[in-house]
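hey all, quick one before standup. I had two proteins in the batch that finished overnight and I want to keep them in one place so we stop losing track of which output belongs to which input. First protein below, input sequence then structure tokens straight from the run.
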Amino acid sequence: METRSNSNSYIGDVAMRKIIEVSNVSKEYGGTGAFRALKDVSLDIMEGEFVGIMGPSGSGKTTLLHMMSTIDAATSGKLLVDGHDIARIKEKEAARFRRDTIGFVFQAFNLLDNMTVRDNIALPLSLNNVKAAVILSKIEELAGILGIIEQLDKYPYELSGGQKQRAAICRALIASPKVIFADEPTGALDSKSSSEVLECLKSINHKLGTTIIMVTHDATAASYCDRILFLKDGSIHGRLDSDGNKMELFKRILNMLAVMGGSNYERL
């Protein structure tokens, strides 16, 4: 008799492993009369998914991202990342867990202007004393996927915004994380650069199988995702699944935002 783990879901006979499990998670800020940023949120994210999180300002989407990425701790509930209960990880182990499991991409590129792009990308592995030959090989591979081979020996201030973000994505990927958390990764970019960055994210999701969780206000950016979760007032208000038609998903996202009162969203 076949036994199926609770941490797996099945499509046909193919096991889909849960990389993140959020169970009744709440987050409160303040003491008496505390503000509840998240209210008993539950969700699963499968390994290899590209998931978008949308919601108006104050909806709890960034708070949820911070909970899942171990930047902040939940007030109550349970949160597993790659099978680890992150509330129980000891402080000494936390840095290693983040280094080995999680990558971050933010709206601000956080590149060091006094280092070349190559050295910026290499930094996480250099700090962990990985052999130079291994680092250089990984940089070439990832830079090829992200289309920044010709920018490797330049400095960040010589790059366009889109090139900087692709370099930041490359740096986030260099340690082969299982999950990339992206917080408004196209928020500071023009439409052309945004499209290039989103195509790169989609490419690494497909080619490397990296799970990506992206917070965005932008319906165009969200249309690149496999699935979008919509938050409102600290709770999940709805979800949409892609059928592979990006334009159709874009229209459905706009409809969902209209239902939620999304007049403040970008409609690109």
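OK second protein, same deal, sequence then tokens:
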Amino acid sequence: MANARGEFSSRIGFILAAAGSAVGLGNIWGFPTQTASNGGAAFVFVYLILAFTLAYPAFMAELLIGRYGQANAVTSLQKMSKTLLQKRFAFIVGFGGIIFASLILSFYGILAGQMMSFAVEPVIRTIGFESIADWVVVGSLSRNLLFTAFFMCLTLYIIKKGVQEGIEKWSKRLMPLLIMLLICLIIYVFTLDGASLGLKAYLNPDFSRVLEPNLLISALGQAFFSLSIGTSTMVIYGSYISKKENLISLGAQVTLIDVSIAFLAGLLIIPAMYVAQHQGVAIFAADGSLIAGPSMVLTVLPALFDGMGVVGSVVAFTFFVLMTVAALTSSISMLETPVSYAVERHNFERKKASMIIGAVIFMISVIIISNIEELLGLAIVIATEYGQPIVAMLACIFVGWIWHRSEILKELQQGNAGVEHSLFWKIWPWYVKFVCPTAIAIVFIHFLNRSI
């Protein structure tokens, strides 16, 4: 069955694909500004601890579900179920992840399309088409529709190719490109006036804030959600892993790459913002906090690039290509989640399933674009602050309370014969049973209280 549905051909193929899924726009613009707003290196310190002590165990739960089931999220969870009630619960958890992955992609495509439009702007302006260049950076309905459609077509192109020829091949191309662009931009920004202040704001620790509830909750939320936990994407990617691979080390390597790229993003974004401030660009909001999210990427940094002259066009192009690549490595995993379900549960041909599901998700994007001020933020909140925590928590409950411990051990022993004697096996089952669901519930309650 694994050969018929495809699997990753190499260890590095899975690592880059899974890391690509985890590394997205949130890592590039979310982690750096959270760090600067929450005690600098103190936040980084807490984030790193929580990423490996809490997020990694939950991440492993989803990988294990997928490799055991060797199928889409719903089928994999139902293979672990013994009773009718458990099978119904499995459907809710698996299909819930599919729904939220699709919803995330519907607004993710819009944001990624904006990144693409800003990437082509300096090229168009350089060759003399000033009016078109102005149009691609103005948030018009037609601009958003065109670039969202273009981004979705790129995602569809990769997914239609399947696991090895699509997801794995392009992850091996895109992830090294992303890392190379990131390092090149960091080196360049460090040469500019004001960068040292940004580096100090990013790396100077304020350890008096380490135990602040808001810092802990923010770091925990960033750790969980930056690893794509709660959208069933890691269940799908886990199902494409060979039974010969050591899942424990694979999961640890993906986690390490994810947090490393998030850290590198901070080395780029925060110094770049202070460089912008040095050049007269406002980087703080009215409440005194650093400008974050899309406003930072689409307002503050373009203003910085504009002040660099000809060099700024090259830097702007490179930066927004970086953002587009980060978005694409995540979007292919999001689309694979519903496509694999349609192919395996309803016998759709992969290309047909990709086209139909891609079209449906794009239509949701069109609805959001048509009323973007109200619907974009609502879609983000529903998917990331409500959907992801609930699905992630239920997946941990499933592994910790429903899946029999002896079956989990047998699955881990494939590719790691002596795992029962390891520290991981002595700790992880209790972590995923008690600690991870509790931690995710705390993050979820925090989001609820914040929104009330």
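Flagging for whoever picks this up: The mean pLDDT is 89. DSSP finds 19 helices and no strands in the chain.
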